Amino acid sequence: MRMRSPRRVSAEVLAAQLAITTGVMVLATCLFLAPLGSELDDAATHRALSIAQTTAADPDIAREVLTTVPSSAGPVQREAERIRRATDALYVVVMDTRGVRWSHTTTAEIGRHVSTDPSAALAGREIRGIDDGTLGRSARAKVPLYDDRGRLVGAVSVGIAYDSVRGRLLDAVPALLLCAGAALAVGALAAVAVARRLRRRTHGVGFADISALLDEREAMLHAVREGVVAFDRLGRIRLANDEALRLLGLDAGATGRPLDEVLAPGRTTDVLAGRVAGTDLLTVSGGRVLVANRMPTRDGGAVVTLRDRTELEQLGRELDSSQGLLDALRAQDHEHANRLHTVLGLLELGRHDMAAEYVAEIASAHRASAEQIAERVRDPLLSALLVGKTAIAAERGVELRLSDATLLHHRVVDARDLVTVLGNLVDNALEAVAERRRGDPSAESRVEVELRAEHTTAVVRVCDTGPGVPPEERERIFVEGWSTKRPPPAPGTGVLPRGRGLGLALVRRLAERYGGMARVTARAGGGAVFTVVLPEALAPSGTAGDGLPVRPFTAAGEPR
User: pLDDT by residue (tens digit) across 343-366?
Assistant: First the structure.
């Protein structure tokens, strides 16, 4: 069986409009013709009544009815015929009080009783209507006939041929049909114009196709694992799929409401509303890191897509922590290997006392540095990170030290976030110092770290003696994929190696997630100062993150 091709929307609308227009014109014509016939009949009976009244008003006719006898040659017949011919009536009949005719179009009927009931007119009432008589169907009127003293002496009956009334009606039909046809033509042209406009707007698809497209759109929107939110030109939510509602923490009732009513003020609302420009914008909603892209539509609205990057961010932080641990172990391994070689040489030379003193000196220095870090930074992960970075810095010939203002006795709510921030800032500072040393070996090589608590806010500040960051680049360095270091691109791709331009971007994202900020300024004497503020990153003073009292830790991470 061959399937019928779906009719286009424009064709269906055209057919529907033509049918409606035709039906309306036919109905209007019928509604016009129906009262027209009644009006013509009413006009004919009124005309018959007027002729009858005029005839009855002639005093000679009433006097002759009283003084003469019915005759085809009598004065009543002559006057009645004169009036009939003058008015083009079908008949003018004058009767006496007995109902006997004194005049008639057919002279043989004179002197005979009328064929219709004259009682109403002989009772003094005027009547009119459509009746059947000896001359056929006619529009008739009957009025009483009075003499000059007001006595009833008979009646006058006047008839107008009904066929002439129907002829008038039929004569009016062509003009009515012409008007109806003209109106129908105008309606058809308007329908064609509307159909063409719809064909352009709907691209020639049919109603079935539109219904199928809508069903497919709904299925696709709610099946994709990305959030999709559509806004109209007034900023109201026109559509939101299930994933978008989940990511933004909204319910189905948000549809149709302005964005500012369903979301609290903040970066997420600004990004969705288009008040923040850019692509792949990062925002935090309900503890989730989202990547948003906004695309305007032709009607003044916009469509926003949302991707959940929370798990990716967590994996990135864990990878950074693992990488930092590997670097620290590698540096310590290299340093320990050198020291062991020195000890082995002293032993082979037989200088056992000097070897013992050397081992004791190294152990004491290392223990003092680790204990100093652990005393000022009570969190074991952060203190371990600083100890490891100190070893890496020493291997690179860079002095890494804590500032005098460093003091972090509070327990960190999520130490992994601070490890990510501190590790990236220190790595960035070490690379900056190393870059300056390559150009000027005599330049100062120092990195200073400051960690302190302001109630439940953690403040991280890292200063370096590197080349610094020009003012025009102080915002761009926090953009993902942008880096002040320009190594050669991967062969044949023109793309920077993986991992470049991600560290500082992660730092800013975490700061924004906590509602804080990350910025870079110039250091007095040269270099850069990176400051990160993380509100609510610390547990209240005197309690650990799980509500337990804070206990100091050693450099190895064991409680004292």
Answer: 777 777 777 778 777 666 665 555
